[in-house]
Write a structure and sequence with these properties.
heterodimer; A: 325 residues; mainly alpha; MetI-like fold; two-stranded antiparallel sheet; B: mainly alpha
């Protein structure tokens, strides 16, 4: 087990290092670092001073070491637009994104599992088929367009929900979130549903397939033969067994939801990391872009590492294959 | 004599692999529906310059006074705009036709390039083995552990906007899927007897790779490519919507939808709504075909 941990951790470090080289090359070598790192309003003397201060007159490998040294102590440059450290800016926006991602996941599970169960128990009825057709649509609908349509129907036409933004936050038990306020719920409803749509389709398919697989099993027949009520068979014997694949896949998809929140946050002007990165790209605020890429890469590397290690902990076959490799 | 000749004439045509494939594909009505939809969308995209009521990018033809007209309204010079106009007075129907052309073009060209690059690398990994394989597959594994949209976002943030750049980003995102798919198939195929026979004939390595191994690895690749075309079109639309994809001079469907965003809040739905429907039609029809192709080309399901 220790060998696997060490091997996978080293691999993660290599990925992070490779990513930092790529980002460095992208921003400092392909692009013109002077345009990128120095405000366009600066005059000639200021530019010369800034070039010397940033070490842009030194050879590329030395510049990379300076950049890496800064990155290791959490100094990823200052945002031109917000005039504060880029890393701090991103960490400030992170809770809003995580709140949205978790709300979307919860919604996907709360709606997806019952629909999937229904479709799995009644595969040949009109309602079962309609649910499956709906899930194909859920995979095909472009997220941003659905978001716009939601705004049009529920905010513009019906006027039920606010079109954009995040509601006021409240703090209880040391957690600050907009979910503690009623207005917060009104604001998060549409973005969370929008972000959840794709995962919902996935959950429906997974749980339907799970039900189809579990129903013919002997232990279900036995439970029925024992005279257990249909409800007990469904919620205890079937439900528990379909949860395993659903939870596994959703765990893997959490990172994906955070990445995709870029789109939903832009549509609903949700003040999270995703909206920040898009605004920063459009405003050429490169230090924030670099910091975002490194933060998100690190997040994914940690997430992947955790999932891999949990797997090898749970499944001895994975562990043996890794050691042999 | 005529009594004998009749059944001969009625004999069904010889079963070729292509005919068998078609009859299996056509067994699903939804798949045929998808195929019909795709043919319609592709025809519109190809024929856009000839069937559009207006050239939406010829500034002499559009009149700003016709701006934001509702669907079905009649413009200044008596032309009816069936799907309304955008803020510049452009006919939405024509803009959608041209937008489909760009969206499908970008999706198709990036897929062809990605299939070629990913296919060759995957084949090489399977056939060469050893260090080459480890290197290629490590890169594939690492790349696939990141969401596609994130990789494309980072690439476009560095490269900037442009038609060529978005194709590069889409290829970079997609090649790994093909490399993984074809390697998996090729690993199974290369142990079969016909490859051994070709090797015994002392055929050149390239000839074995591309004339013997490759054709037998194609079916799964076709399935993955069909699904990925739909993904590429959706991803391009998303990136263009975010303002990172195509510039305003080459408006794809995503950009048309983004363009209507600000008018949505004042109830002018058509600028975003109809391009979205066109995008949806393209993606759904491709997905329906892909679903059936997967069933037809998957030997495991045929038992």
């Amino acid at each position: 087990m220790l060998a696997v941990v060490i091997r996978r951790s080293m691999q993660s470090v290599v990925v992070l290092a490779a990513m930092s080289v790529l980002v460095f090359l992208g921003v400092y070598v392909v692009g013109n670092p002077i345009d990128i790192l120095i405000s366009p309003d600066a005059d000639q003397a200021e530019r010369a001073r800034a070039i010397a201060a940033l070490g842009l007159d030194r050879p590329a490998h030395e510049q990379y070491l300076v950049f890496l040294g800064g990155a290791l102590v959490g100094d990823l440059g200052r945002s031109f637009v917000h005039n504060m450290p880029a890393l701090k800016l991103i960490l400030e926006r992170m809770p809003a994104t995580i709140e949205l991602a978790l709300a979307a996941m919860a919604l996907a599970i709360a709606i997806g599992i019952p629909l999937g169960l229904w479709a799995g128990l009644r595969p040949n009825t009109a309602s079962g088929r309609a649910i499956m057709a709906g899930s194909i649509l859920g995979f095909s609908l472009p997220t941003f367009w659905v978001g716009l349509m939601l705004i049009m129907v529920f905010a513009v036409m019906l006027g039920w929900l606010p079109a954009t933004g995040r509601g006021p936050t409240a703090t209880y038990f040391g957690i600050t979130t907009s979910l503690f306020t009623l207005k917060g719920w009104a604001h998060i409803a549409m973005p969370a549903f929008n972000l959840a749509l794709f995962k919902m389709a996935l959950v429906i398919r997974l749980s339907r397939a799970g039900v189809r697989e579990v129903l013919p099993m002997d232990y279900i027949k036995f439970a029925r033969a024992k005279g257990l009520s249909a409800r007990r068979v469904l919620w205890v014997h079937v439900f528990k067994n379909i949860l395993i694949p659903v939870v596994t896949v959703l765990g893997l998809e959490l990172g994906n939801v955070i990445a995709f929140s870029v789109v939903t946050e832009t549509v609903f002007a949700w003040p999270g990391m995703g909206k920040l990165i898009i605004d920063s790209i459009n405003l050429l605020d490169r230090p924030v872009v670099v910091a975002y890429v490194l933060v998100v890469t690190a997040m994914f590397v940690v997430l992947n590492l955790t999932v891999d290690l949990l797997y090898s902990l749970l499944d001895p076959r994975v562990r043996l294959a890794e050691v042999k490799a | 004599m005529t009594a004998i000749a009749e059944p001969v004439a009625a004999r069904p045509p010889a079963e070729t692999p292509l005919r068998r494939f078609w009859s299996e594909f056509a067994a699903n009505r939804l798949a045929l529906f998808g195929l019909a939809g795709f043919v319609a969308v592709a025809t519109i995209a190809l024929a856009a310059p000839w069937i559009s009521p207006q050239n939406p990018y010829d500034l002499a033809k559009i009149d700003i006074l016709d701006g934001r007209l509702a669907p079905g309204a009649v413009g200044m010079d008596g032309v009816r705009f069936w799907l309304g106009t955008d803020d510049q007075g452009r006919d939405m129907l024509s803009a959608i036709f041209y937008g489909l052309r760009i969206s499908l073009g970008v999706g198709a060209s990036s897929t062809v390039l990605a299939v070629t690059i990913g296919g060759v690398l995957g084949l090489l990994a399977a056939y060469a083995g050893g260090r080459v394989e480890t290197l290629i597959m490590r890169v594939v594994d690492i790349q696939l552990s990141f969401p596609a949209i994130l990789i494309a976002l980072v690439l476009l943030a560095v490269l900037g906007q442009g038609l060529g750049k978005i194709v590069v980003a889409l290829v970079a995102v997609q090649w790994a899927y093909y490399a993984r798919t074809i390697r998996g198939t090729a690993l199974v195929e290369r142990r079969k007897e016909y490859i051994e026979a070709a090797e015994c004939l002392a055929l050149s390595r390239n000839r074995i790779l591309f004339r013997h191994l490759l054709p037998n690895c194609l079916p799964p690749l076709i399935v993955v490519a069909t699904v990925q075309v739909a993904h590429a079109i959706a991803l391009e639309a998303t990136l263009s919507f975010l303002g990172l994809g195509l510039p305003i001079t080459e408006p794809s469907l995503g950009l048309l939808i983004a363009n209507g965003y600000e008018y949505m809040l004042s109830g002018k739905y058509w600028i975003s709504f109809f391009p979205g429907l066109a995008l949806l039609a393209a993606i759904v029809s491709i997905n329906l075909m892909a679903d059936q192709l997967r069933d037809v080309l998957n030997p495991r399901l045929k038992a």
